[in-house]
Amino acid sequence: MIEIKQLGKKFEVENPKKLSEQEKKDPRLKGRFFHSVTNVSFSVDDGQVLGLLGPNGAGKTTTLRVLSTALQADSGEVVINGINVLKNPLQARKKIGFLSGSTGLYGRLTGRENIRYFGQLHGMSKIQIDLRIAALSEMLEMDTFLDRRCENFSTGMKQKTAIARAVVHQPEVVILDEPTTGLDIMATQTVMNFIQDLKTQRVPVIFSTHHLDEVSKLCDRVAVIDKGISKFDDSIDVFNQLANGDPNAAFLDIINGGQ
Ligand SMILES: Nc1ncnc2c1ncn2[C@@H]1O[C@H](COP(=O)(O)OP(=O)(O)OP(=O)(O)O)[C@@H](O)[C@H]1O
């Protein structure tokens, strides 16, 4: 289970001139600090998939990076299967599989070598790594490119490799930042099937997306954030009922304060 309570994260603005016009007007900008996330709460149980929604700049990536221990929170609480993530980040990290927005693969290594390297970092044995890569390659349909260097991979190949790398250690929870962005229909379907498989294994999954059709197909729960604040955290059924089964209208209602 993953529980996030009243999360807050601010960044020091090193060069205010670099802020976008929108950010300069954003109420989250206070003096030298941009308060990207000020009050975000949601939870997801074992065997559930949660879709994290919000407009551009809402604070989704910031939230997911705090959950994954890549960033330190300023306030709030994150608990993953009983471990306080903010107090015990190293212990928590072993339990988490995190796909960040930028894949960051080593271009000169093959897909297999990239995944293997992460397995080694997690302390897995050679046999464990080989078996796991074989299983992931099948699930994510990677066998045709697994042994090619990553530098010439398509977006879909890169994303599949990055996902396999993120979950090589069989994490207890999986956090994916926009896993299907830029993917074609086939690759999107493969990634969605992969999330469905995790759900069948009762691994809780949180993923951010702008695609409401994916949320309707996969998610048990929906969390919506806007300008760093939680606006909705409930079941997919409650979300759909907000606007007679129209998820786009439900999302807009939430953002425009219609509920
Ligand atoms: N390191 C940083 N320093 C300053 N501001 C930051 C930093 N990281 C994020 N922000 C700002 O915090 C706000 C939230 O960003 P974040 O990337 O979390 O949004 P998002 O909901 O993931 O957006 P998108 O849907 O566009 O990916 C943005 O205005 C962003 O510019």
TrEMBL record:
GO terms for molecular function: ATP binding. It comes from the Bacteria. This is ATP-binding cassette domain-containing protein. Pfam families: ABC_tran (PF00005). Residues 11-252 form the ABC transporter domain. Keywords: ATP-binding, Nodulation, Nucleotide-binding, Transport. InterPro entries: AAA+_ATPase (IPR003593), ABC_transporter-like_ATP-bd (IPR003439), ABC_transporter_ATP-binding (IPR050763), P-loop_NTPase (IPR027417). It comes from Aliiglaciecola litoralis. Belongs to the ABC transporter superfamily. Gene3D superfamilies: P-loop containing nucleotide triphosphate hydrolases (3.40.50.300).
